[in-house]
Amino acid sequence: MPVPDVMFCAQQIHVPPELPDIMKQFTKAAIRTQPRDVLQWSYGYFYALSRGEPLPVKDRVEMPVATQKNDTGLTPGLLKILHKQLSEKKIVDLQDLQKKWKNLCLPMEQLCNLLRLDNFVDGVEWMKFFALGCSALGGSLLSSMKHACEILTNDPEGGAARIPYDTFEFLYSYLASLDDEITEEVTNSFLKALKDQVARKEYMIGTADFTTVKVKP
Predict the structure, then answer these.
(1) Is the link from the previous residue into 4 a cis peptide, with omega within 30 of 0?
(2) 139 CB contacts (<8 Å, ≥6 apart)?
(3) What DSSP character marks residue 18?
C-alpha cells in the first residue's frame, strides 16, 4: 500500500519548549562521561531522567578514559555514579545492579568477579560492594581506602577528602577480612591507633590521617 503524501508545516510539528535544554544537558553529560557505548549509556541516561533517578553522569572528565580492552573498566568516576544511584537502598537487587553496571558500559565479567568475592545471597549489601569496587581501583588496602575517601567525601576536590570514621572503619575492616595476610589483631591495632589520632577532629578522617599511622604486625 503506497504511503499517502502528507504535507507538514511548522504549525503541525509540536516541539516541547523544554526539549532544547534537555538535549543541551544530555550533550554536556555525554562529553563529561565519555561513555564507551553511547547508545547503551543514552538509554540509561534517559531512563533515569524519566524516573527522577540520579543520572549516570560523571562530575568531571576522567583522563584517560577506561576501556574494557586495556584495563579494569571501572574508574573512580564510574564508581561514584553507582554510589549515587544505589547507596540509598543499602541492600541492592542484583538485577538493578547489573542494569546500572551495563548502562555505564562496564564489562559484565568484572562485575561477576567482584560478586564472587563475597556470598551475596539475599541481595547485594551496597557498602560491601562499594568496598570491593574500591579494591578493584587500588592495588593495596590503603590505596583502596584512599579511593573510598575521595569518592565519599564532601570536601572540595584536592582537599582533605574526609569521611566519618565509622564509615572508614567498616570499609577497612571488611576489606581486611578478605585478605588472608592481614590478621584481625593487625586490623584492630591499626584502627585503634587511627581512632586515637582523629579523636580530636570529631571523628572525621581524611587521606592524610590514615597514611601516617604505623602499626607493627
Answers:
(1) no
(2) none
(3) T
